[in-house]
Amino acid sequence: MIEITRAAEPVRTHDLWIEGWRPARSGATFPTYDPATGQVLAHLARGGAEDVNDAVRAATRAGAAWAKVDPNERARLLWKLGELILHHVDELARTEALDTGKPISNARAIDIPRAADTFFYFSGWATKLHGETIPVRGPFFHYTVREPIGVIGAIIPWNFPILLAARKLAPSLAVGNAVVLKPPEEASLSCLRLAELCAEVGLPPGLVSVVTGYGHEAGAALVAHPGVGKIAFTGGTDTGKIVMASAASGLKRLQLELGGKSPNIVLADADVAQAAKAAVSAAFYNQGELCTSGSRLLVDRAIEAEVLAVLTKGTEAMVMGDPLSAQTQIGPLVSAEHRDRVRGYVALGTEEGATLAVGGQALGPGYFVRPAVFTGVRPEARLAQEEVFGPVLSVIPFDGVDEAVRIANSTAFGLAAGVWTRDLGTAHRMIGALRAGTVWVNTYNRFDAASPYGGVGQSGFGRENGAAVLDEVTTRKTVWIAVPE
Ligand code: NAD
């Protein structure tokens, strides 16, 4: 039993944010839970197609004016938004910890400051949206200009709500788009607060809307809406396919950041102690509810025993507890359904013949599961192939670099990979051979607003962050001007 203390607070009902607060047109609401207690945390407006319609109409109006705003002014407002987020770091970190179950110390150190960083970084791009002058055959002056798309629909999951919202909003707004955001039904509160902060810094009404609700209702309506020019989606691979099929009928632009089953590979010549220690946080940071989680630890058989000793000790030492406690390193999973799903994979691991070295027990109140390490996992086992999105690590032994690459590339996903080696040549060969959107060498789970991020294969396509995302949020217009000779 985990000890949780909560001051009695009234359970509030939150409206949608479309040019300000207002209830869903249907008047319907749905509950969102505190994952640490299983108690209702708040009620949210259950947005539907009519609400999405209102939000898109408001966004179309506001976006047309915003695209004409002096880029310096757009930059100034986005920078100010970053500062306001930092100003509210304690409040936002608490909201995120209560709503998602993540440890408050992580939210305070990473989620909130990185969300602010994203606005700082992209505020700089507002004034640097250059086109190109391209020499062509004939008497023509030929150039390109970059233009905003118009209305961008953003759909995000519950594991990093405010940070993922910032990743969608900041580049889109910087270049002159409007955004309708569909936050995750499990954890929408920080996104609603972000909408308020957008208004507080002076972003025009309608430019950013937040339509809470279920994926198959509000989310599906947003994807299908003809007034939305592009969908930026982060979520599961199966949902991504549904989104893609729906977007196809309107030939909508699409960016998909989907699931992963990322290999974290420890070669025989690695600094074993450092690699094994890092493998614990690679697998269990944010309860393993991280798309790039190093959920497959590939270890050269020559050093397996040494790695396992550090790994199991480090895993058992992780402090599981109240997400609001500063000491907590592992909080509860986001929902009862997700806890049950994760527990299902723990049972599956044993059924498939792997050895449960530590963890896997569910604890109450709320949705806690102790971080689990399975050893001797076969690379083709379901546990090694399917995304768990929770604190379940599969350790897979290999013999030599070639086998490591073969196993690493043997899933349908291709989001990220880690390599631990002291040999620079081996590192470069691995970087070339691994099928992944990101490769980390002698480190893991590094992100930066300036660093392009995205997957290959079933992990999706398109790139978030960095200059790369500017191609995702603009269109290029080509201009030919006849120059009389
Ligand atoms: P999910 O796919 O169930 O939901 C994600 C979002 O999509 C939610 O807002 C949901 O309401 C919405 N949605 C659901 N059905 C929809 C539909 N038919 N049309 C439109 N929208 C719909 O994912 P989840 O369980 O919330 O999150 C976990 C998944 O997200 C994992 O697979 C994880 O790997 C992935 N993820 C990927 C990244 C990345 O950057 N690649 C980052 C974080 C999470």
Name the helicity range: 25-40%
Q: What is the number of beta strands?
A: 22
Share of β-strand residues? 15-25%
Bound molecules: nicotinamide-adenine-dinucleotide
CATH 2nd-level architecture of the largest domain: 3-Layer(aba) Sandwich
User: Number of domains in the coordinates?
Assistant: 2
Provide the CATH superfamily of the largest domain: Aldehyde Dehydrogenase, Chain A, domain 1
**Overall outline:** globular
Cα-atom radius of gyration: 23 Å
- The low-confidence parts are none
| CATH C-level name of the largest domain | Alpha Beta
Largest sheet: 7 strands, mixed
CA distance, first residue to last residue: 84 Å
Q: What does the average pLDDT come to? A: 98
- What's the arrangement of strands in the largest beta sheet? 14-17-18-13-12-19-20
User: Helix count?
Assistant: 15
Strand and helix layout:
Elements: E1 12-14, E2 16-17, E3 21-22, E4 29-33, E5 40-45, H1 49-66, H2 71-87, H3 89-100, H4 104-125, E6 140-148, E7 151-155, H5 161-174, E8 178-182, H6 189-201, E9 208-210, H7 215-224, E10 230-234, H8 237-249, E11 253-257, E12 263-266, H9 272-284, E13 296-300, H10 304-316, H11 336-351, E14 355-358, E15 362-363, E16 368-369, E17 372-375, H12 382-385, E18 392-398, H13 401-408, E19 416-420, H14 424-433, E20 438-441, E21 460-461, H15 470-473, E22 474-482
Parallel strand pairs: 1-5, 7-8, 7-10, 8-9, 10-11, 12-13, 12-19, 13-18, 17-18, 19-20
Antiparallel strand pairs: 2-3, 4-5, 6-22, 11-21, 14-17, 15-16
Helix pairs in contact: 1-7, 2-4, 2-6, 3-4, 4-5, 9-10
Bound molecules: nicotinamide-adenine-dinucleotide.
Residues 155-159, 182, 184-185, 215-216, 219-220, 223, 234-236, 239, 242-243, 257-260, 291, 387, 389, 415, 455 line the site of nicotinamide-adenine-dinucleotide.
